Task: structure prediction
Amino acid sequence: MNFWETVTGSDLTREWKAFEARAEELPADYRAAWEQMKGHLFPYSGFTGRELMPILDSALGLLEEAATDGQSIHEVLGDDIAGFCTALAGGAGARDYRDRWREQLNRNVARKLSRLGG
Result:
């Protein structure tokens, strides 16, 4: 990846289009699960979503492999897609973007308050 791709995010756009093309090849129930998985995983991404791409790639690969093997979506993901996605993102208690922003805001406020008080 070169500097221009990093700044513009064109590499992410290309990768995202490839994910969606792969997802179109899945059976309907797997495509529906993919849409749900994306929705549950996005809160764990950063500003650009760059760190989420390997997780999405692995999740889509799992769906592709399971569909090829003829497994049902329930066999693969179980009853709790949100829980499955939480585990993919780093387990229960994994920090999402709100947690990171809250921590950053708290640090900034504490820094400003320490300057005013000291």
User: Anything to note?
Assistant: The chain has seven helices and no strands.
